[in-house]
Specification:
The protein is built from five helices and no strands. With 144 residues, the chain is mainly alpha-helical. The radius of gyration is 17 Å and the shape is globular.
């Protein structure tokens, strides 16, 4: 049970920092024309959700007593954490090569697998993320 709290805290911190980075970088996108939402609108909504969700999770974990530092995790847990962070650094290289939909599917499935999800859950998550990204980004927002 102790290790789960550590993972919750790490995921919360990742969500907060990722949300702040998306918010910052989406500020460089051009504004919308004629009062319509611009290209930064949807990324900022997602960034806000990430930051608020991460802060809520961090507050919940902070209220629980007895949190161990990350270096006391089991070795396989530490390896998973390093692999997840390494995968995030590959994103700028993979996105132009694989495309938005396939990259989102690969990242969601990789993350779920590294966090210990069962194969059926990993496959289901890949299908759902692929369909949602295709629908929202490719069809609705025309992102290529």
């Amino acid at each position: 049970m102790q290790e789960e709290r550590v993972w919750e805290a790490l995921v919360a911190l990742i969500a907060v920092f990722l949300g702040l980075a998306v918010w910052h970088f989406s500020g460089s996108l051009p504004p919308g024309q004629g009062g319509a939402p611009g290209p930064a609108f949807f990324p900022r909504i997602l960034a806000g959700i990430l930051v608020l969700g991460g802060l809520a999770l961090l507050a919940r974990v902070g209220r629980q007593a007895g949190l161990k530092p990350f270096w006391t995790l089991r070795r396989e847990s530490f390896v998973r954490m390093v692999l997840l962070w390494s995968a995030l650094w590959l994103l700028p290289w993979l996105l132009p090569k694989l495309g938005l939909v396939f990259t989102a599917v690969v990242y969601s499935m990789l993350t779920a697998a590294l966090l210990g999800a069962r194969r059926a859950e990993v496959l289901y998550l890949g299908l759902v993320v692929g369909a949602l990204v295709q629908l929202v980004f490719a069809e609705l927002l025309k992102v290529r």
